[in-house]
């Protein structure tokens, strides 16, 4: 009797937690979805005659170029990311430990900044081609050199800075893959390549999908690079329609189509892996690394080094040399203020994103219903939308609410409350959550997906409530994923430009804003210091985490054959 | 190492200010500026020194700021909108977010075609869209007008940036205003056929491409050339040395110009302060500063441009009302789309 009474009480309190969790999840998701829905709602409004013009002239180019860009960046990030992850997680070669965190570094470089640096180096009037011409006495048109400012160039630039998403997530997945499966594969006579393609990669599918879709969404939302390279992509079209034609509504409709497209891709992916499960059966234990000795080891070293050089060392060196030339003219106090404000913003936003991602991600696990699934999905759509469009989606409802409250207060109390939320840091952090939630959610989801539900069930049957399971079972197992989620959003916010630009309060600036303002005025040398600072601050969390986190993603002391 | 503590104090002040909506303590004016911070802050600080009026600043894209202004409505904290082209000011007036500013001083010093006819906004500095040519391959007597850039002898010899750029758009709008639609479309086709490469990069990139021999001519804004002549990097200086500027259409309508300018918002709470600021920006000190610091032309005829700008020679500017550039902007973009100017 006593036992059954206890069981009932647990399950009723459990149900209460579980229900309020669900309510909180839906409410949060609904609030976060507002800006995206504001954009999508533009589809219900009238269609301007400009549409006809777009269809007749440029829309086809926008669509085709964006699809090609997606394809290229997809292939590029997978190639670089999986190579890096496989080498550093599954093999042993000279310098592996350093590469395992250093390969993350390109993530800290904003795409438009890497585009500027490579253009500086490789353009027709840049040092490389000028030297070639001087050396061989060539003139314009005498030789072939790939045009850096082209669609292909944009694919390369974006792949170089976006592959870390794939790398990071796939590497975590590889490290967490159960030894037993991989060793079984090897003992069955499969070589390392076959193990990679037939076992490890298929098992890492949630991470592959999460990483690649982040990279693709960011590539679709990129404006700085394609604009600078003169590529007519979909985002260029959105801004051209808005700025050039003065048609904000048509621009919002274009953005809404972009959103629907991404949403459709998500649904397709979800359908394609229905009924597949990717949990690990045995306890997490680092698989025995494949030792690469002799020339193989050095080949691996060379491959890792070239990825790192192309994505980080070369552009950082270029930035460093530009910055050094200008260091004397810099107002250091103002500069450190920028560093401080960028850092605080990024910290606030990454924590906010992580908490909400946990709420949504774990909520989906507690209630794996279609409503929860879609709620989480819709609220993470912001990542595929150019920041400026999201900013408008945030601006409109906030200003509307503020003005409504003000109107009410004026009417009934004769007090003007003015704008309470618009133009505050709170609004800005909210916008970051809308824009970057996808990053933390995908990471948390990928982490949760690797934990068998039966673990939850066992824990629950032992009397733990949902919160207890989260705290005692999931959080410790998720440490790597949580740290990853924090890091990714932190760096993303640090680099973020357009949302910050338009939503920020008076007299508030960040490194990215400063770097962009100077770079857009083509003062690259002056932009180099803030750009370099973004990169260096981006390093801090990476280094911090390699030092302290016990996450397998960063920590490799548990080497060996245990 | 005392600067980080200064930085920390400043940061604390900035965060505190940002977290809580500013209360009107000192006399102040709030500005939404499409002109970026580095290119406006020093002169705003001078204004504060002179008048004691604090200036609070948000910078951003012109259209984005305009959208923010519209949505914030009557509660917007912004007293003043500052843009770097006439088109955005035209749009701001159309959107009803500006109020007329009657100032005898401004009307006297700002020429009529460089300000709004009903006093909603005033131009503050002038930039010219000119032809940059390679000194060793082109002589000035081969050049005449924008129209002539569509001639066949320039096939594959012209560099220009994307048609998404506002200054290209306003140049084409200027052409529409004076030459009409059919003429302009015809011209655009010839112009696009003469491109040496797909449009890309910024104006400095076009000048560098001319210097390096990728093309012989480029359409650029005058101040970029000045900035390169003035540049701290040897490469930019060297590139600028190989290039000279030509002011087109001197025998006819004149060279295309655009203005940066400002107006007071409908909801402004600090109208007097905003007026003082706009008048200050049209005053002699600020006008000189624009010229020296940004290599722009003063909007006032009684103020001499900088020595560097004078070295390019005098020119006749197109006297088309810059309001027209705003009105025809969308039409210009569509014409460029049809001509396949990327």
UniProtKB/TrEMBL annotation, chain A:
Q: Which Gene3D superfamilies does the UniProt record give?
A: MetI-like
Chief subcellular location equals membrane
Which residues are in coiled coils? none
Q: Does the keyword Nucleotide-binding apply?
A: no
GO BP field: transmembrane transport
Entry keyword set: Cell membrane, Membrane, Transmembrane, Transmembrane helix, Transport
Residues passing through the membrane, by range: 21-47, 67-87, 99-118, 147-170, 251-268, 295-314, 334-360, 381-400, 412-434, 477-494, 527-545
Q: Which InterPro entries match?
A: MetI-like, MetI-like_sf
Q: Which domain of life is it from?
A: Bacteria
Subcellular location per the Swiss-Prot or TrEMBL entry: Cell membrane
Q: Where is the ABC transmembrane type-1 domain?
A: 63-269, 339-545
User: For this UniProt entry, what's an example GO CC term?
Assistant: plasma membrane
Topological category with respect to the lipid bilayer: Multi-pass membrane protein
Transmembrane helix recorded as keyword: yes
- Entry's family note: Belongs to the binding-protein-dependent transport system permease family.
Question: What protein is this chain from?
Answer: Iron ABC transporter permease
In which organism is this protein found?
Parahaliea mediterranea
At the highest ranks, the source species' classification is: Bacteria, Pseudomonadati, Pseudomonadota, Gammaproteobacteria, Cellvibrionales
From TrEMBL, chain B:
Q: Where does Fe cation bind?
A: 223-224
Listed Gene3D superfamilies = Periplasmic binding protein-like II
Q: Which residues form the signal peptide?
A: 1-26
State the superkingdom: Bacteria
The protein's matches in SUPFAM superfamilies, at most eight in alphabetical order, are given as: Periplasmic binding protein-like II
Q: Which Pfam families match?
A: SBP_bac_1
What is stated as this protein's family in its record? Answer: Belongs to the bacterial solute-binding protein 1 family.
Designated name of the protein: Fe(3+) ABC transporter substrate-binding protein
Q: What is the lineage of its organism?
A: Bacteria, Pseudomonadati, Pseudomonadota, Gammaproteobacteria, Cellvibrionales
């Amino acid at each position: 009797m006593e036992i059954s009474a206890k069981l009932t009480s647990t399950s009723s309190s459990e149900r209460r937690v579980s229900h309020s969790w669900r309510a909180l999840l839906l409410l949060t998701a609904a609030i976060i979805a507002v800006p995206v829905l504001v954009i999508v709602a533009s589809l219900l409004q009238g269609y301007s005659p400009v549409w006809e013009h777009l269809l007749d002239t440029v829309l086809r180019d926008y669509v085709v170029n964006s699809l090609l860009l997606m394809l290229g960046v997809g292939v590029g990030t997978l190639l670089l990311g999986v190579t890096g992850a496989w080498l550093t997680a599954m093999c042993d070669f000279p310098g592996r430990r350093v590469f395992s965190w250093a390969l993350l570094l390109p993530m800290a470089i904003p795409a438009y900044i890497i585009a500027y640096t490579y253009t500086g180096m490789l353009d027709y009037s840049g040092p490389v081609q000028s030297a070639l011409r001087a050396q061989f006495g060539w003139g314009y048109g005498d030789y072939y050199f790939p045009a850096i400012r082209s669609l292909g160039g944009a694919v390369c630039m974006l792949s170089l800075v976006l592959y870390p998403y794939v790398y990071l997530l796939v590497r975590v997945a590889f490290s967490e893959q159960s030894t037993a499966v991989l060793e079984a594969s090897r003992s069955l006579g499969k070589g390392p390549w076959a193990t990679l393609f037939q076992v490890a990669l298929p098992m890492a599918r949630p991470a592959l999908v999460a990483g690649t879709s982040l990279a693709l969404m960011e590539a679709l939302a990129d404006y700085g690079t394609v604009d600078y390279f003169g590529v007519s992509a979909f985002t260029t079209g959105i801004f051209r329609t808005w700025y050039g034609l003065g048609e904000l509504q048509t621009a919002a409709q274009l953005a809404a189509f972009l959103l629907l497209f991404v949403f459709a891709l998500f649904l397709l992916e979800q359908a394609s892996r229905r009924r597949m499960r990717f949990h690990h059966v045995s306890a997490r234990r680092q698989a025995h690394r494949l030792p690469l000795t002799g020339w193989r080891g050095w080949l691996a070293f060379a491959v890792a080094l070239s990825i790192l050089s192309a994505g980080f060392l070369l552009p950082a060196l270029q930035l460093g040399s530009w910055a050094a030339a200008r260091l004397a003219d810099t107002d250091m106090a103002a500069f450190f203020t920028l560093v401080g404000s960028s850092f605080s913003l990024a910290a606030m936003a990454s924590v906010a994103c992580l908490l909400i991602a946990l709420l949504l991600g774990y909520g989906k696990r507690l209630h794996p219903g279609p409503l929860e699934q879609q709620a989480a999905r819709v609220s993470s759509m912001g990542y595929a939308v150019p920041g400026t469009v999201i900013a408008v989606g945030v601006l409109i409802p906030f200003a509307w609410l503020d003005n409504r409250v003000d109107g009410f207060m004026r009417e009934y109390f004769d007090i003007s409350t003015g704008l309470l939320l618009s133009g505050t840091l709170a609004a800005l952090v909210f916008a970051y959550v809308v824009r970057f939630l996808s990053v933390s959610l995908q990471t948390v989801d990928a982490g949760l997906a690797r934990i068998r539900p039966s673990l939850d069930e066992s824990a629950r049957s032992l009397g733990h409530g949902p919160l207890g399971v989260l705290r005692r079972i999931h959080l410790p197992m998720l440490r790597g994923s949580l740290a990853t989620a924090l890091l990714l959003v932190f760096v993303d916010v640090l680099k973020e430009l357009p949302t910050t630009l338009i939503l920020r309060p008076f007299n508030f600036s960040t490194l990215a804003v400063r770097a962009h303002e100077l770079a857009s005025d083509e003062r690259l040398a002056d932009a180099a210091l803030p750009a370099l600072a973004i990169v260096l601050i981006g390093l801090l969390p990476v280094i911090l985490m390699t030092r302290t986190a016990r996450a397998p993603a960063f920590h490799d002391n548990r080497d060996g054959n245990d | 190492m005392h600067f980080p503590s200064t930085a920390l104090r400043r940061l604390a002040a900035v965060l505190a200010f940002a977290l809580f909506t500013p209360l009107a303590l000192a006399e102040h004016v709030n500005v939404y500026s499409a002109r970026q911070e580095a290119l406006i802050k020093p002169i705003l600080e001078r204004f504060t020194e002179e008048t004691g009026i604090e200036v609070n600043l948000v910078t951003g894209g012109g259209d984005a700021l305009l959208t923010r202004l519209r949505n914030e409505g009557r509660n917007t904290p912004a007293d003043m909108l500052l843009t770097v082209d006439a088109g955005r000011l035209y749009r701001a007036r159309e959107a009803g977010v500006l109020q007329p500013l009657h100032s005898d001083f401004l009307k006297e010093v700002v020429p009529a075609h460089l300000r709004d006819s009903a006093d909603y906004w005033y131009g503050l500095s002038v930039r010219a869209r000119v032809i940059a040519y390679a000194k060793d391959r082109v002589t000035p007597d081969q050049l005449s007008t924008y129209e002539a850039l569509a001639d066949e002898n320039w096939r594959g010899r012209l560099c220009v940036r994307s048609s998404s750029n506002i200054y290209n758009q306003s140049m084409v709008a200027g052409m529409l205003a004076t030459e009409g639609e059919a003429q302009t479309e015809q011209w655009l086709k010839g112009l696009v056929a003469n491109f040496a490469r797909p449009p890309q990069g910024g104006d400095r990139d076009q000048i560098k491409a001319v210097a390096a021999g990728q093309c012989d001519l480029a359409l650029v804004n005058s101040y970029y050339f000045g900035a390169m002549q003035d540049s701290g990097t040897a490469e930019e200086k060297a590139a600028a040395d190989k290039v000279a500027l030509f002011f087109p259409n001197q025998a006819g309508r004149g060279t295309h110009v655009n203005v940066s300018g400002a107006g007071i918002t409908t909801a402004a709470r600090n109208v007097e302060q905003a007026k003082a600021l706009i008048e200050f920006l049209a005053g002699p000190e600020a006008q000189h500063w624009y010229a020296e610091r940004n290599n722009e032309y003063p909007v006032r005829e009684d103020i001499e441009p900088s020595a560097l700008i004078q070295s390019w020679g005098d020119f006749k500017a197109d006297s088309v009302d810059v309001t027209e550039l705003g009105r025809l902007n969308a039409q210009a973009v569509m014409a460029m789309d049809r001509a396949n100017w990327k």
